[in-house]
Amino acid sequence: MRHRKKGRKFKKSKEQKIAMFRSLSSSLIEKEKITTTEAKAKELRGFTEKAITRAKEDNLSNRRLLLKNFSNQIVEKLFKELGSRYKDRKGGYTRVIKINPRQGDAAKMAIIELVK
Fold first, then answer.
1. How many independent structural domains does the chain possess?
2. What is the CATH number of the domain that holds 89?
3. Pairing verdict, β 109-114 and 33-37
4. Residue 75 located in a structural domain
5. What angle do CA 31, 42, 26 make, to 5 degrees?
6. What is the pLDDT of residues 34-89, one digit of tens each?
7. 110 near 39, Cβ under 8 Å?
8. What is the mean pLDDT of the chain?
9. Does 91 map to a domain?
10. Position 4 in a domain
11. pLDDT, mean of residues 85-110
12. What is the reported pTM?
């Protein structure tokens, strides 16, 4: 039974899932727009938005928390650019746009991007 178990499995262990979302989130923060499957984009949205919310307030505990998941470059971009950009916004920093299925296996695809 899946009582109280949130999120999709992606046929991965917990550690593999966290590593995948760290990588995808780093790419999204760095490039501000990536293409991935629809399910991954929807799960990635929450992971990235929590990081951006942390970056809105620059203090030592938030920096240490973000450095557990991201590299120094990504953390600097979060605090300097994205934290100040979304200072007045209460949430909804990302947008998921559905696109045509992938050619090879017809997987549902989506573009996830940071809202300007």
1. 1
2. 3.90.1030.10
3. antiparallel
4. yes
5. 30
6. 999 999 999 999 999 999 999 999 999 999 999 999 999 999 999 999 999 999 99
7. no
8. 96
9. yes
10. no
11. 97
12. 0.92
